[in-house]
Amino acid sequence: MRHHLILRVITKLLVGTIFLFALYVQFHGDYSPGGGFQAGVIMAVGFILYGIVFSLAKAKKVFPPWLVHKLLAFGVLLYGGTGIYSMLMGYSYLDYTAIDPHHPSHGQHLGILIVELGVGITVTGVMVAIYYAFAARAPILSDEDW
Amino acid sequence: MLIVTALTVVKTRSLFAIVALSGVFSLLSALLFITWDAVDVAFTEAAVGAGISTVLMLGTLALTSRAEKESQKSNLLPLVSVVLAGAVMFYGTLDMPKFGSPETPVQTHVGPDYLKRIPDDIHVPNAVTAILASYRGYDTLGETAVVFTAGIGVLMLISGLRRRRINDDDNKNSSDTKDTT
Question: Could you state, in order of their start, the residue ranges of all structural domains in chain B?
Answer without folding.
Answer: 1-68
